Amino acid sequence: MTSFLKIQPLTRAGFAPFGEVIETQGSCRFAINAGFAERFHDLARIDVAAAGGRPLLSILRAQPRPTPLRLTLMERHPLASQALFPLQDRDWLIVVAAGQDPLRPQALRAFRASGRQGVNYAPGAWHHPLIVLTPDHEFLVIDRDGEGVNLEEAPFVTEVILDL
Amino acid sequence: MTSFLKIQPLTRAGFAPFGEVIETQGSCRFAINAGFAERFHDLARIDVAAAGGRPLLSILRAQPRPTPLRLTLMERHPLASQALFPLQDRDWLIVVAAGQDPLRPQALRAFRASGRQGVNYAPGAWHHPLIVLTPDHEFLVIDRDGEGVNLEEAPFVTEVILDL
Questions:
Q1: Largest CA-CA distance found in chain B, in angstroms, rounded
Q2: B145: which strand partners?
Q3: How distant, in Å, are the alpha carbons of A28, A94, B125 from that of B145?
Q4: In chain B, how many domains are there?
Q5: What span, in angstroms and rounded, lies between the C-alpha atoms of B44 and B23?
Q6: Phi then psi for A2, rounded to 5 degrees?
Q7: What is the pLDDT of residue B161?
């Protein structure tokens, strides 16, 4: 059985159960550097300290997947948050799952993010690996280094296709 | 007395005394997500845990300063690193100072970074506030939230001009 997953625009309210949207629009801001800069302050709950973890800054360079876009697996990081922000201003896609069974089609939510929106997955939030729409789309990533098992994966057994 | 500060291209070797250059070029990389992405791994020593600190993710939106570009003050964060990465692919400028007296003209170093290069200032490294060359140049910033005094400033008393 194949299910099709509709894509919604990414909003703070829609994404709230899964973490935070990282964006300047609507964020707390104040002037710094004698007025030569504004700071959009504290945009994500970076939570990487469990079990002696430390923050890790990396860059991901992602490639588009073949269409029709079949979801492959869901993953989560039980020990830490994971923040992603695009380095090129191009739309990208996010798939998350509510609750504890990430493979239930009814649990899945898909969002289209703009190139000026990042997300921070809360610890334990199920999400699909990165889905980009253009070649060599890069993201700055803040996640966790440290001991302990911080990755769980759940491969799809039924077919779920993103309704692009 | 006016001194003029020459600008060098930003390189890992040149910046090493002050922290790390954050860039994909020349970095350790490996494939992830079934080959649909590469990870350029662990690009900066994010060091924000002193005195109960936690990582803070923010966005800065900076504006160009008037030319000739007079340095105003140097600052440093004694308790933590501060990482900056540009969100638009445009050159920007970095001024740092070697040693403990940031106002000595001989201590100053200026670098021109590309829009694909960020930096992570090491804890205690003296640096000038953000210098951009184009309006609304934004940066993702990872620095520290927490108790304690994490900002020292040293205003220039003699004139130092960036030799653009």
A1: 60
A2: B54
A3: 15, 29, 18
A4: 1
A5: 10
A6: -105, 135
A7: 97
Chain A residues contacting B, CB < 8 Å? Answer: 22, 24, 27, 32-34, 36-44, 46, 48-49, 54-65, 72, 83, 85, 87-89, 116, 120, 129-130, 138, 140-142, 145
pLDDT, chain B, mean: 97
**Does pLDDT of B57 surpass 90?**
yes
3-class secondary-structure state, position B2:
strand
The residue type found at A126 is W
List the CATH number of the domain containing A21.
2.60.120.480
Nearest 10 degrees: CA dihedral of A141, A151, B144, B15? -50
Res. B100: pLDDT tops 90: no
Range of the domain at B159: 2-163
Q: What is the mean pLDDT of each run of 10 residues along chain A (164 residues)?
A: 96 98 96 97 97 97 97 98 98 96 96 98 98 98 97 96 94
Is B60–A142 a contact, with Cβ atoms under 8 angstroms apart?
Answer: no
Mean pLDDT calculated for residue range B60-78: 97
d(CA A116, CA A134): 15
| pLDDT for residue B1 is more than 90 | no
Flag if B72 and A120 touch (Cβ within 8 Å). Answer: no
In three-state form (DSSP H/G/I as H, E/B as E, the rest C), the secondary structure along chain A is: CEEEECEEECCHHHHHHHEEEECCCCCCEEEEHHHCEEEECCCCCCCCCHHHCEEEEEEEEECCCCCCCECCEEEECCCCCEEEEECCCCCEEEEEECCCCCCCHHHEEEEEECCCCEEEECCCCEECCCEECCCCEEEEEEEEECCCCCCEEEECCCEEEECC
Strands (E), chain B: 2-5, 7-9, 19-22, 29-32, 37-40, 54-62, 73-76, 82-86, 92-97, 108-113, 118-121, 126-127, 131-132, 137-145, 152-155, 159-162
pLDDT confidence tier of residue B92, bands split at 50, 70 and 90: very high
The residues facing B5 across adjacent strands are B162
